[in-house]
């Protein structure tokens, strides 16, 4: 293959969209959860309990469909821009599996591909584990193409500007345009030990330790500040967490969104906007943890709650993916591209350094960075 259709994408001849995966029918649910939790010793009974979340929605996670919609939007955007770059889709935990997709890319003659992951922030589970998955897939694929994972994009304007507009739209749904509303920014909880080691070791200045929380706080402050500029009001806001799992004895990031709603209600807050700032689309953590569980909590507490939209296929988010490809391609050609970033932190590095977001179970090789 030759990316001659647009010189600015050289040296890439494909883009791989890499995501988490999810079941698409009821009989997929428990096998999918077994894939997600493999090696953690979680009994099948517990998996079946967690699976009830999926069965509420017909045993189908929306994440694959949302990724297909994103890919279709990317393909149209590329075509509109005269970019001849095929887009492939692979998952960590369900069909289409990454290894199968990489085999197809190899068969199609792909030599070098950029990789976009549907996780914006830095931690082992949200960044490095994908790099470990890429390493594994390349190792088991003869003649696999070279894969370059694109940088994390939690502070890219193409990700955050749609969040700002979603906040404003949600506030407009409330009485008096949400004048008294509290903004509740929600992301996926992770073990505190993983959060503490996210980012690079102390000697690195680019992405210091505890990056997961620092990156979220930077994004939250930026969005809240822009909402203040647009409305002329400074809404109280907090960063909270959802989707805690694992042993009760293991500390995870808190507070949980439901516990936080309880506290807000006790303080007399009557209106909230829940902002899923940790998620790029409306997958299970959003439609169950927020739209179902947290909304039920708000209703029980007598609070008026609205949930802001995710970036999804917003044209600015789609354009961001294209820009990340062109940015990395330029860097690989030895150029010095502009790296858009908003908020208090700089744009992240293209290549993760040694010791970045270490695997909590011990050193493992990972693509696009050092091996441990």
Automatic annotation (TrEMBL):
The metabolic or biological pathway listed in the UniProt record of this protein is: Porphyrin-containing compound metabolism; protoheme biosynthesis
Top-level lineage group: Bacteria
**Could you tell me which InterPro entries the record lists for this protein?**
Ferrochelatase, Ferrochelatase_C, Ferrochelatase_N
The places in or outside the cell where this protein is found are: Cytoplasm
Q: Recorded E.C. number(s)?
A: 4.99.1.9
Residues at which Fe-coproporphyrin III binds: 61, 130
Q: What is its main location?
A: cytoplasm
Q: Which residues bind Fe(2+)?
A: 188, 285
Arranged from A to Z, the UniProt key words for this protein are: Cytoplasm, Heme biosynthesis, Iron, Lyase, Metal-binding, Porphyrin biosynthesis
Is Cytoplasm among the key words of this record?
yes
Chemical reaction(s) catalysed: Fe-coproporphyrin III + 2 H(+) = coproporphyrin III + Fe(2+)
Q: What class of enzyme is it?
A: lyase
Alphabetically, the GO molecular function entries are: lyase activity
- Chain coiled-coil ranges: none
Write out the function statement from the record.
Answer: Involved in coproporphyrin-dependent heme b biosynthesis. Catalyzes the insertion of ferrous iron into coproporphyrin III to form Fe-coproporphyrin III.
What the record says about family reads: Belongs to the ferrochelatase family.
What is the protein name given in its UniProt record? Coproporphyrin III ferrochelatase
Write down the species. Nocardioides cavernae
């Amino acid at each position: 293959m030759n990316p001659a259709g647009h010189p600015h994408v050289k040296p890439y001849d494909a883009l791989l969209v890499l995501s988490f995966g999810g079941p698409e029918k009821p009989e997929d649910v428990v096998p999918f959860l077994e894939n997600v939790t493999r090696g953690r010793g979680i009994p099948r009974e517990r998996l079946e309990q967690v699976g009830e979340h999926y069965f509420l929605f017909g045993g189908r996670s929306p994440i694959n469909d949302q990724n297909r919609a994103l890919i279709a939007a990317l393909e149209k955007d590329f075509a509109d821009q005269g970019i001849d770059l095929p887009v492939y889709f692979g998952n960590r935990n369900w069909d289409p599996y990454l290894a199968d997709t990489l085999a197809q890319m190899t068969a199609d003659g792909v030599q070098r591909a950029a990789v976009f992951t549907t996780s914006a922030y830095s931690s082992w589970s949200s960044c490095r584990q994908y790099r470990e998955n890429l390493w594994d897939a390349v190792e088991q694929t003869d003649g696999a193409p070279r894969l370059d994972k694109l940088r994390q994009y939690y502070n890219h304007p193409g990700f955050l500007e749609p969040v700002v507009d979603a906040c404003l739209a949600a506030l407009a749904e409330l009485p008096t345009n949400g004048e008294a509303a509290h903004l509740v920014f929600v992301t996926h909880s992770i073990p505190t030990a993983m959060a503490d080691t996210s980012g690079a070791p102390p000697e690195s200045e680019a992405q210091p330790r505890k990056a997961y929380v620092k990156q979220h706080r930077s994004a939250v402050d930026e969005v809240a500040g822009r909402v203040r500029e647009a409305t002329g009001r400074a809404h109280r806001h907090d960063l909270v967490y959802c989707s805690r799992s694992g042993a009760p004895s293991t500390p995870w990031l808190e507070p949980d969104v439901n516990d936080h709603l309880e506290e807000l209600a006790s303080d007399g807050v009557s209106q909230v906007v829940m902002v899923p700032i940790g998620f790029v689309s409306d997958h299970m953590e959003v439609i169950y943890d927020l739209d179902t569980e947290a909304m039920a909590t708000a209703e029980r507490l007598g609070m008026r709650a609205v949930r802001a939209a995710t970036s999804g296929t917003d044209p600015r988010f789609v354009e961001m993916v294209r820009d990340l490809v062109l940015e990395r391609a330029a860097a690989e050609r030895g150029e010095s591209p502009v790296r858009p970033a908003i908020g208090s932190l700089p744009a992240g590095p293209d290549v993760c350094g040694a010791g970045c977001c270490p695997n909590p179970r011990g050193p493992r090789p990972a693509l696009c960075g050092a091996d441990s």
